[in-house]
């Protein structure tokens, strides 16, 4: 037997293991759909599960975030039975008709809907059409008469799940809550990062056109600048209806239209909500969808009855025209079905980035409503003078990558697995620091940053949130570079941060030309009059502390990369530019009366968590202890509920105010650097524990937002409960509690300073480095601190006793040799054992 065969078997086994199915850990039985209680273990049932009347069902608990294509194994059935299945990250989502969805912001190569209905007709395994991107809970309810046996259920994994306990990086300490908190970012970045090819196309191209299942309309990449057009297409409804969108603005809102069939009994599920989709009608909405979703408003404008039956399995020709005076007309097979003025509904069509664009400018797209299926073909788009602007038969696979529904070519990290499932540029600051401390998946970081560079524009800008299903060749038409300019800086920091933690030269070399170009753009945004960055966005306004200080940090970190690559000219430019920018911040933005760095020149009395965080991590505030001290004192004014509210202007009484673990993650780093142990401990103990305290909301992964008043998920059911941007403690705990930090890129040189202020008596961490594994463990017994280090060849470092910098050490012992005094103990590769007597230091 050849080695090749053995190797292939191994590869197959590894592939099988790493994409193993996720199966539920717990089944809770039937009739529990209203307010199920996860602690109600009495109602636990085991497989096989027998269902024999409508209203029966089960709740499945997967124990933590899982992702993949749902399946149900039915072993016996006596007649066709309709089953409704719901998915949710938090348990209470199962009580809602749409689960914790829908997610109409983007198509994400997954299901928009979190509820689906099956018509089960015979024994066998049923698969969902779509991937469900992320959930812990699932419910199954029987809708119609009959008896069936379910012998298994689960998800065919769409991610490479690994138990956070078994990752290359590791952290553990005497506080078990911190151990669970460490795992949050590790699991979130496991669940949010997807391998090339693992997310399949969501449209099926047939000789008759594109077969599309209920999903947010996927948009053509080519129509963004089109206005006053007539969109014509043919559609054949296979179940329920056919939907489309027009005038989609860059913020992904616009017109939504839905043609509903006569709803033949043979194909209509009994749970079909005909309030939204009455038979033989066109529903019209403006916004993201036909139903509201927390931060994504939708306005159901009207419903138009069609004066004839809309048959399923029958082709219809649709012509839809939107003019800039807001007149909308739709004709079906040449018969006018609606003719309205959108202004009568109070809709004003606009384009946030281009005020000169004609009202109603924007692309078109196709996608039916939940559980519906339709074929679409022969698209044409024409100007009002009759000129054809676009034509596509939807019979060629190439169309998938134009509409953003093609199988993903790149290994990338998304913002989160359940939604938005976009490559959000500004989200990766924490992700690229979490990965080296946990999964060590270099391919996840490299793939993400390379995809962003594949979309880079002429000016050097990276796209804010490119989709994984669109070919980057459409970048010029899709655009998406505007708004949130600070995401550019955060993107650069994602690159530099990964280099700092890994010292990975090949990585740096591959990405350097692109990031260098992006850095030049960032430098060009510095105002020559004020010396401050004209960069605004998520973290703060232009000419402000957060966005300028963040750029100081990014430029200094970029200089480190430039130096490593022998690009000394760039390194010098970046450090000089950073130093000038830092001086401008110190001079113009420090408010002596309030003892704060101001949010901006035009808001001198305001300050924010991001201002304070980046003023510290950029090194600006640490030059001056007076300023640092007053800044930390001012922070207390932002304390709200479990963390710190974004800005001094944020309401303290509004019950919808959220605490951002992303922004508080920047802060956590800053507090550690400033030795501000008490507020850092406060954040760990109250903000991050919110994600682990309640079994009904915890997923084992870090959250997008935490509500200030309730400590529950911040955006209701919409909240991503698996968001790497909320997982900062995964890299901060090893660095500041276990205390092992890189001093020279990639831990070539390291320092260990045990984090004694955290009410932790022992801690250990394992850090994968390019030299091998670096591990440390320490324990404080009474006044004796012992530290064990195992360092790989090629590295060296030192151990310091916290708080003794500048002071002499007391009695110490290194590998059996006693000593006294000094500031630190220098160590080389191999195993070392250090003991300090803290009584006399
Ligand atoms: C379910 O399947 C049965 C058997 O094929 C069929 O008769 C019935 O019309 C289907 N119901 C729906 C709602 O699709
Ligand atoms: C049907 O949809 C309407 C409009 O969204 C909603 O108010 C109603 O609660 C829904 N009914 C059910 C049973 O889900
Ligand atoms: C969504 O919420 C807005 C504002 O609360 C409301 O005006 C609108 O009618 C709602 N839309 C739907 C579809 O319920
Ligand atoms: C027709 O309209 C299109 C789009 O507005 C324009 O580009 C084209 O020049 C027009 N053609 C004629 C013949 O006016
Ligand atoms: C994936 O690569 C193929 C081959 O280059 C290309 O045709 C397709 O458009 C790409 N798809 C995406 C989503 O980039
Ligand atoms: C630079 O700052 C000055 C002074 O605040 C302002 O007038 C000018 O518009 C700014 N320039 C840019 C390009 O924003
Ligand atoms: C940088 O220059 C040094 C000294 O000339 C050389 O040893 C090293 O290989 C260079 N590094 C790179 C990345 O070119
Ligand atoms: C840095 O380079 C930019 C061009 O990218 C140039 O405009 C700027 O003057 C340089 N700054 C310094 C301090 O050398
Ligand atoms: C430190 O900051 C304080 C308060 O703004 C200021 O009075 C003092 O001059 C600063 N010290 C130095 C060395 O810059
Ligand atoms: C310190 O840790 C101990 C043991 O885990 C715990 O009982 C105690 O409440 C903690 N104290 C503080 C201030 O966190
Ligand atoms: C350090 O290593 C020694 C010898 O293996 C072991 O006995 C001791 O428990 C270790 N201490 C810590 C803090 O890990
Ligand atoms: C924090 O403490 C360390 C010694 O443990 C010291 O080197 C450092 O300067 C301190 N940082 C600040 C900002 O006080």
Keywords:
Jelly Rolls, Glycosyltransferase, 841 residues, single chain, 24% helix, binds 2-acetamido-2-deoxy-beta-D-glucopyranose, Alpha-L-rhamnosidase
Describe the structure.
The protein folds into 4 domains: 20-158, Galactose-binding domain-like (Jelly Rolls), CATH 2.60.120.260; 181-192 and 413-732, Glycosyltransferase; 203-402, Exo-inulinase, domain 1 (Jelly Rolls, Sandwich); 738-840, Maltose phosphorylase, domain 3 (Sandwich). Helices cover 24% and strands 28% of the residues. The protein contains 16 helices and 42 strands. The strands form 9 sheets. Strands 1, 2, 3, 4, 5, 6, 7, 8 and 9 form a 9-stranded antiparallel sheet that branches. Strands 12, 13, 15, 20, 21, 22, 24 and 25 form an 8-stranded antiparallel sheet that branches. Strands 10-35-36-37-42-39-40 form a 7-stranded antiparallel sheet. Helix 4 crosses helix 16, helix 5 runs parallel beside helix 8 and helix 7 (486-502) runs parallel beside helix 9 (545-564). This is Alpha-L-rhamnosidase. Residues 739-807 form the Alpha-L-rhamnosidase C-terminal domain.
What is the topological layout?
Elements: H1 3-18, E1 26-28, E2 44-45, E3 49-51, E4 57-77, E5 81-88, E6 115-120, E7 124-127, E8 132-142, E9 148-157, E10 170-173, H2 176-191, E11 193-194, E12 203-206, E13 209-213, E14 218-219, E15 229-239, E16 241-248, E17 254-260, E18 281-287, E19 298-305, E20 315-322, E21 327-332, E22 335-341, E23 363-366, E24 373-383, E25 388-392, H3 398-402, E26 412-413, H4 428-437, H5 442-454, H6 475-478, H7 486-502, H8 505-524, H9 545-564, H10 568-588, E27 590-591, E28 596-597, H11 609-617, H12 625-635, E29 639-640, E30 643-644, E31 658-659, H13 661-673, H14 677-688, H15 690-693, E32 706-707, H16 729-736, E33 740-744, E34 749-752, E35 762-769, E36 772-781, E37 784-791, E38 796-799, E39 811-814, E40 817-820, E41 825-827, E42 830-837
Parallel strand pairs: 34-38
Antiparallel strand pairs: 1-2, 1-4, 3-9, 4-7, 4-8, 4-9, 5-6, 5-8, 10-35, 11-26, 12-13, 13-24, 14-23, 15-20, 15-24, 16-17, 16-23, 17-18, 18-19, 20-21, 21-22, 24-25, 27-28, 29-30, 31-32, 33-34, 35-36, 36-37, 37-42, 38-41, 39-40, 39-42
Helix pairs in contact: 2-16, 4-7, 4-16, 5-8, 7-8, 7-9, 8-9, 9-10, 9-11, 11-13, 13-14
Bound molecules: 2-acetamido-2-deoxy-beta-D-glucopyranose (12 copies).
The site of one 2-acetamido-2-deoxy-beta-D-glucopyranose (NAG) has 7 residues, from loops.
């Amino acid at each position: 037997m050849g080695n090749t065969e053995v190797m292939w078997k191994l590869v197959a086994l590894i592939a099988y293991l790493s994409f193993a199915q996720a199966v539920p850990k717990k089944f809770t039985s039937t009739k529990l759909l209203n307010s199920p209680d996860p602690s109600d273990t009495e109602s636990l049932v085991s497989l096989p599960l027998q269902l024999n009347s409508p209203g029966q069902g089960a709740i499945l608990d997967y124990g933590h975030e899982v992702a993949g294509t749902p399946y149900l194994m039915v072993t016996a059935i006596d007649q066709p039975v309709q089953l409704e299945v719901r998915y949710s990250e938090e348990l209470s989502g199962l009580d809602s008709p749409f689960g914790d969805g829908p997610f109409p912001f983007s198509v994400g190569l997954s299901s928009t809907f979190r509820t689906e209905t099956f018509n089960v007709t015979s024994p066998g395994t049923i698969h969902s059409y779509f991937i469900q991107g992320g959930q812990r809970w699932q419910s199954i309810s029987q809708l119609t008469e009959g008896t069936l046996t379910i012998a298994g259920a689960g998800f065919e994994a769409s991610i490479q799940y690994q138990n956070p306990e078994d990752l290359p990086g590791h952290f553990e300490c005497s506080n078990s809550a911190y151990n669970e908190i460490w795992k949050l970012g590790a699991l979130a970045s496991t669940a949010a990062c997807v391998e090339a090819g693992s997310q399949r196309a969501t449209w099926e191209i047939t000789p008759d056109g594109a077969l599309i299942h209920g999903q947010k309309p996927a948009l053509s990449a080519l129509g963004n600048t089109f206005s006053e057009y007539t969109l014509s297409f043919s559609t054949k409804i296979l179940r329920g209806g056919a939907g489309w969108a027009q005038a989609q603005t860059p913020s992904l809102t616009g017109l939504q239209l839905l043609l509903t069939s006569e709803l033949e009994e043979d194909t209509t599920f009994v749970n079909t909500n005909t309030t939204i989709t009455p038979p033989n009608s066109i529903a019209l909405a403006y916004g993201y969808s036909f139903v509201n979703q927390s931060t994504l408003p939708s306005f159901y404008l009207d419903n138009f009855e069609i004066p004839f039956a809309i048959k399923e399995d029958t082709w219809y020709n649709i012509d839809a025209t939107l003019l800039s005076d807001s007149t909308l007309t739709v004709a079906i097979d040449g018969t006018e079905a609606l003719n309205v003025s959108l202004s009568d509904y109070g809709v004003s069509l606009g384009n946030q980035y281009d005020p000169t664009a004609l009202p109603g400018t924007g692309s078109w797209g196709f996608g039916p409503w939940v559980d519906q299926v339709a074929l679409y073909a022969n698209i044409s788009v024409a100007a009002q003078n009759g000129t054809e602007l676009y034509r596509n038969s939807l019979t060629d696979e190439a169309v998938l990558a134009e509409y953003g529904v093609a199988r993903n070519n790149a290994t990338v990290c998304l913002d989160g697995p359940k939604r938005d499932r976009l490559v959000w540029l500004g989200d990766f600051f924490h992700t690229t620091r979490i990965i080296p401390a946990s999964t060590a998946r270099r391919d996840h970081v490299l793939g993400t940053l390379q995809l962003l560079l594949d979309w880079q524009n002429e000016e050097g800008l990276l796209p804010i949130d490119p989709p994984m299903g669109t070919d980057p060749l459409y970048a010029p038409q899709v655009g998406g570079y505007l708004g949130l300019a600070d995401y550019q800086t955060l993107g650069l920091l994602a690159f530099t941060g990964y280099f700092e933690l890994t010292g990975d030269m090949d990585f740096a070399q591959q990405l350097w030309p692109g990031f260098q170009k992006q850095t030049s753009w960032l430098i060009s945004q510095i105002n020559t009059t004020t010396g401050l960055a004209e960069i605004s966005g998520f973290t703060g306004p232009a000419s402000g502390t957060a966005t300028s200080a963040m750029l100081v940090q990014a430029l200094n970190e970029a200089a480190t990369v430039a130096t490593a690559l022998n690009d000394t000219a760039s390194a010098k430019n970046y450090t000089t530019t950073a130093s000038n920018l830092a001086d401008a911040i110190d001079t113009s933005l420090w408010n002596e009366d309030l003892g704060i760095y101001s949010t901006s020149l035009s808001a001198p009395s305001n300050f924010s968590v991001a201002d304070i965080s980046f003023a510290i991590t950029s090194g600006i505030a640490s030059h001056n202890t007076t300023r640092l001290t007053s800044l930390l004192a001012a922070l207390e004014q932002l304390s709200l509920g479990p963390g710190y509210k974004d800005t001094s202007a944020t309401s303290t009484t509004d019950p919808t105010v959220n605490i951002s673990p992303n922004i508080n993650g920047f802060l956590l780093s800053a507090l550690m650097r400033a030795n501000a142990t008490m507020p850092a401990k406060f954040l760990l103990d109250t903000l991050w524990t919110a994600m682990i305290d309640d079994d009904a909301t915890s997923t084992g992964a870090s959250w997008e937002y935490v509500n200030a008043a309730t400590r529950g998920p911040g955006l209701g059911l919409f909240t991503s409960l698996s968001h790497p941007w909320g997982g900062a403690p995964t890299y901060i705990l090893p660095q500041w509690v276990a205390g092992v930090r890189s001093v020279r890129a990639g831990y070539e040189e390291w320092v260990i300073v045990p984090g004694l202020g955290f009410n932790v008596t022992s801690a250990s961490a394992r850090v994968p480095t390019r030299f091998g594994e670096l591990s440390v463990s320490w324990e404080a017994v009474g006044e004796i601190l012992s530290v064990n280090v195992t360092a790989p060849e090629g590295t060296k470092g030192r151990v310091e006793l916290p708080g003794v910098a500048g002071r002499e050490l007391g009695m110490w012992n290194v590998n059996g040799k006693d000593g006294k005094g000094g500031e630190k103990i220098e160590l080389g590769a191999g195993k070392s054992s250090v003991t300090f007597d803290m009584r006399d230091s």
